[in-house]
Amino acid sequence: MIKSASELKTPLTLRPDVLVIGSGAGGAVVAARLAASGAKVLVLEEGGHYTRADFNMREDWAYPRLYQERGNRATADLGFTILQGRSIGGSTTINWTTSFRTPDHVLDHWARAHHIEGLTKSALTPHWDTIEERLGIHHVGLDEVNRNNGVLYDGLGKLGLHRDTTSRNVRGCMKSGYCGMGCPVDAKQAMAITLIPDAIEKGADVWAGARVERLEVAGSRVVRAHAVAIDKDTDRPTGVAITVEPKLCVLSGGAINSPALLLRSGLNANGRVGLRTFIHPVIAMFAQFDEPIEAFYGAPQSVYSHEFARRDGKMGFFLEVPPIHPMLAALALTGYGQAHRDLMVQLPHAQAIIALSIDGFLPGDEGGRVTLKSNGAPKVDYPYTDALRESFRESMKVMARIQFAAGARAVQTLHTTPIRIDRESEIARIDDAPLGPCLNSAFTAHQMGGCSMGGDPKTSVVRSDFRHHDIQNLFVVDGSVLPTSLGVNPSETIYGLASYASTKIH
Ligand SMILES: Cc1cc2nc3c(=O)[nH]c(=O)nc-3n(C[C@H](O)[C@H](O)[C@H](O)COP(=O)(O)OP(=O)(O)OC[C@H]3O[C@@H](n4cnc5c(N)ncnc54)[C@H](O)[C@@H]3O)c2cc1C
Ligand code: SF4
Fold first, then answer.
1. Largest alpha-carbon pair distance within the chain?
2. Could you say which ligand is closest to the alpha carbon of residue 195?
3. 381-419, pLDDT tens digit by residue?
4. Residue 193 contacts by C-beta under 8 Å, 6 or more apart in sequence?
5. How far is the CA of 94 from the centre of ligand 1 (A)?
6. Which residue, among 104, 118, 225, 95, has the nearest Cα to 168 in the 3D structure?
7. Judging by beta carbons within 10 Å of its beta carbon (0-12, 13-18, 19+), is residue 245 exposed, middle or buried?
């Protein structure tokens, strides 16, 4: 059973073999594996515990409870909305189920450019095989493709561009379209119903509503973790302290939050914590169709293209589709008053494609940075570089061509003053529009890096075996260790890495 720290009335001290901070893709897998190997595992998760009985398919319920900063996380200049999870299961509770193994060339790049040893395809394959089996990850057929994704599939086909269907971690998916608000029928094999129960079955102690504020270090060891109980309703600390004295500590708070915890704990000797934060920056293109698209129903992501993932000397991007629900659409769609209202009225006929730029590979691309606000919360800065602007412009033009090829009546950018294009011959107008913070909507649902892995202790935070370079009993196992972005959706990479990491933690 998952315990709720909100209900604690008196301070608590716990002494596990292993403390795992965070219960998402990294934390759940590592907790399950270590508990199975006989360790006494404690998981502390700052978010609440919600189940299918809670998931009511309402955006106004879900964003405040299941997302970081109640759904309002953003970069400091508001250039990027940051969608990131916060509950038992972490971002897997609200992710869209698309599952990819890490591309070979990315693993090769890490070995070459970041001196990472051992993270090879052959070392990771058995871990992916097992996790795919446990999570029901399978390649979906065209029968699972809704019209929103079908537009991408058809448009890519008409233009002769690479296209395929995705793999998804689902069993018995009813194609409701509400993955982003928590699966109401437990079809999505998220951590809260898979690896977290596996960990508990093997004796792990799992607490919701317990936020680790600071790690206390003596010499080169974590001796204590200081946590506070969080009230489930108000989301504020209740004032009850939880102190943990673990033998080993595994930090799995995810990108942004893991580096923030290290910074709050004063563990940044080489100044690298928070650097190399990558976000797969997302730009979207909306299209209007005469036919109903109803992009709020159906498996959210079932089609993708890697046609533009590797562009010589330029930032690559990959193409997918987002679900379109009214609240997020109202935020994403720019324009005001009657014009905005007209778009919202037409929502059942709206279709969208997203381009996710692949950051962290070009020489000099250091991505963004996590620092701390005065209250200890993370502050994220992410720059609009020339390479990113070029990638956004090129991808918007590509997406528009795909949408017209699939029969769109008109397409529209997400600039603050939207550019509406009624015919393909006018797509070049996109080149003239400025891009930057508050000039256009941009997003991220994939946060990576900030506790970068690497062979050189001067330029990275953890070693190839996930152990902190300086702190002997501290490991970081989550998306924050990725030294670059991936060019594919990150969850399966993180599951695989976490399963592999658990063989190194002792
Ligand atoms: C809307 C959305 C859609 C997505 N769709 C996909 C998809 O289709 N496919 C895919 O592969 N990926 C997708 N992702 C991304 C994917 O889910 C994440 O990359 C992955 O879950 C990250 O794993 P993680 O372990 O690094 O962090 P998370 O899974 O985010 O887990 C971290 C957990 O740690 C907790 N935590 C943080 N700090 C503390 C602290 N100090 N004390 C206690 N607890 C703490 C957090 O509350 C959180 O629950 C999506 C993400 C979002 C937001
Ligand atoms: S689309 Fe499938 S996996 Fe997603 S919420 Fe609906 S039933 Fe669950």
1. 68
2. 1
3. 999 999 999 999 999 999 999 999 999 999 999 998 889
4. 89, 186
5. 8
6. 95
7. middle
Q: Are 22 and 251 in contact (CB under 8 A)?
A: yes
Which domains are seen in the chain, by residue range? Answer: 3-136+180-276+446-501 (3.50.50.60), 142-170+282-358+385-435 (3.30.410)
| Residue 300 near residue 174 (C-beta atoms within 8 A) | no
Which residues touch 318 (CB under 8 Å, ≥6 apart)?
Answer: 304, 305, 306, 308, 309, 355, 356, 358, 487, 488
Indicate if the alpha-carbon torsion angle 8, 12, 17, 23 is positive or negative: positive
Amino acid at 392: F
CB 298 within 8 A of CB 149: yes
Strands 3-4 and 221-230: unpaired
The closest alpha carbon to 412, from 281, 284, 300, belongs to 284
Q: Cα(472) to centroid of ligand 2, in Å?
A: 41
Q: Give the model's pLDDT for residue 328.
A: 87
Encoded tokens for 429: 């107008």
Which residue stretches of 37-180 are H helix? 59-66, 104-114, 121-135, 147-159
Compute, in angstroms, the gap from residue 77 CA to the centroid of ligand 1.
22
Which residues form the pocket of ligand 2, taking CB atoms under 6 Å from any ligand atom? 97, 170, 173-179, 183, 185, 187-188, 299
Dist. CA 403–CA 288, nearest whole Å: 9
Torsion on CA atoms 241, 212, 266, 275, rounded to nearest 10: -160
Q: What is the pLDDT of residues 221-240, one digit of tens each?
A: 999 999 999 998 888 999 99
Confidence at 281, pLDDT banded by 50, 70, 90: very high
Sort strands 378-381 and 369-372 into parallel, antiparallel or unpaired. antiparallel
SS3 of 227-259: the string is: EEEECCCCCCEEEEEEEECCCEEEECCCCCHHH
Closest ligand by atom to 183 CA: 2
- 460-467 average pLDDT score: 98
pLDDT for the residue numbered 340: 86
Nearest CA to ligand 1 atom 47: 86
Residue 364: left if φ>0, alpha if ψ -120 to 50, beta else—which one? Answer: left
